[in-house]
Amino acid sequence: MNAGATVEWLAIPAALPDAGARQAAEARQSQLTKPPGALGRLEAIAIQIAALQGTEQPCVDKVHITVFAGDHGVAVEGVSAFPQAVTAEMVKNFARGGAAICVAARILGASLEVINLGTAHDTGPLDGVKDRRLGPGTANFTLESAMDVHQLAHALGIGRHAAERARLNGAQLFIGGEMGIGNTTAASALACALLDAPPDRLAGPGTGLDARGVTHKIEIIRRALACHSTHHGTPLEALRRLGGFEIAALTGGYITCAHLGLPVLVDGFISSVAALAAARLCPGAEHWFLFSHASAEPGHRSVLDALDARPLLNLEMRLGEGSGAAVAVPLLRMACALHNEMATFAEAGVSGKSP
Amino acid sequence: MNAGATVEWLAIPAALPDAGARQAAEARQSQLTKPPGALGRLEAIAIQIAALQGTEQPCVDKVHITVFAGDHGVAVEGVSAFPQAVTAEMVKNFARGGAAICVAARILGASLEVINLGTAHDTGPLDGVKDRRLGPGTANFTLESAMDVHQLAHALGIGRHAAERARLNGAQLFIGGEMGIGNTTAASALACALLDAPPDRLAGPGTGLDARGVTHKIEIIRRALACHSTHHGTPLEALRRLGGFEIAALTGGYITCAHLGLPVLVDGFISSVAALAAARLCPGAEHWFLFSHASAEPGHRSVLDALDARPLLNLEMRLGEGSGAAVAVPLLRMACALHNEMATFAEAGVSGKSP
Questions:
Q1: Distance between CA A31 and CA A40 in Å, rounded?
Q2: Plot region of B72 (φ>0 → left; ψ -120 to 50 → alpha; else → beta)
Q3: B33 neighbourhood in chain A, CB within 8 Å
Q4: A10 lies in a domain?
Q5: Catalytic residue flag (residue A178)
Q6: Residue B191 lies in domain
Q7: ipTM, two decimals
Q8: Which CATH number covers residue B214?
Q9: How many domains does chain B have?
């Protein structure tokens, strides 16, 4: 069966984290030569990755990053500070290694792939960019559904295959990134539908709208929600009507990671909305998600709260591309190294707490 | 002149950051292929390091870490959750590479040295630990000054020499760490004197006191402040009477970095109190300090506020040893790499913001 054409696989429950590995990792942490809890959240991170990887000694040396790019019909409504041409231009920039995520991937020694799911402007053939175009961007969702059922299924499947490639190549951590002018508008609209929240709580400046621009963006989202209000009751329909190619691909990628037992490090606002959709579609998917950073995009807080997520970093980043997740990878690696390599009280002959 | 015996050098003004390099770095940031400000605090960090290093393209690949260890006479008052023997035991753990800072230094490829300024218990000779013992720990500062004038001058000079060695060895970033049972009590007392603040605002659980233990610690600090109240008016006297060997060494090290123009990444509560003392003793020293993390120790906030400091991380760490600073190093490296290696709009042919 062609995974790109059906969507039943989304509802398969996620793999279960390993409770025994978690307990072993907790026991190990309590024996390391430091006051209990003194490494703060790094201790919890190491224990969480241990449970997800099913081992007392977790490792995220091998990181795979897939950046999904696609354009948005709603961009015609003037919801972005940048022209739509930038999506295709940035895909070329990814191919040449000049974008932030390319630099970060080099620093991390991570594998990086870029998938064009449908830019409005042609890029021509590009080394290192997979061409999976489903159209010249989504439709303008203030007037019609962003995607038809085939586009949605294919976008989800493209994400699925990216996660499967990551697993086959031995990745220990999956990062999804996104690029698409207008995609904070799509993500905000989708989050409004999933959370039943008003647009003014979730919409923000994106790449740099001023206050008037944000007001206009809120109005556009309100119009879209009204257009689809009788139909966006299920997460899948909300994703099809209000999402985007890259948001659907992220959703499919995240769900596949949860099926395969591959930990995901979620980036910022748009990625978190995809993670929320994934959690709504796939029972238990959220157990496989670690959250890297709190975005400067104001709606991120509501989405994180809905996922009961506490991101590691708050650096006021708002770039996307997976960049915030990439910046957090060294913290995960440090957490694992400290967990695996520190001496225990017994090994080091160090006294414990006073009675 | 023996730097270990005099303290006049502390008051030499700090080097000046390079305003031209700062402007060049700011100009570069504005041309990189991302919405302006989208990398958040990573942009400001790269620009700050550029100004400190006097170059448009900053780099912190070469990191030097010195851990200063020393015992505290006030430990006899029962102010720590751990027995005093742990200071010497942890010095041995440093020598064997089993402590958190040893693991972190290996991950970072950083040079690490450990200096014993005076443990109460003998460690015997240890490979990789410099023996600079000034006594079996400081005196109990609830009864007398923690250090005499010679001990203070020598401790400051030991820190000075550590920073000078770091510079000679080509370090681009200096991290000071500390180990000493009882040293959150000393640091809290010193901060109370420097900030004219009450002990209950600055004292906390340290390595893990319970509420009753914290109350007792506050009482001990109150007694110490009363004992020295007519004398701790100058930062140097406060440091001598209420500080510790390792806190004084950190202070001397930080000031020397400021003199030499070597950026410092400050660790947590105790290191920040030393940074505060350094800023009070050396005009302009604070310009050379970057702050790595907000400690779980509650008094850290007041000390950071006094230094107008915004740390990068908040991971609820409270270990010391320089570990929080080490964990933040990859963020600085990522900030520099993104700043140096991303394509500009012109190079990549990417459109700027819409008019």
A1: 15
A2: beta
A3: 90, 93, 98-100
A4: no
A5: no
A6: 63-331
A7: 0.96
A8: 3.40.50.10210
A9: 1
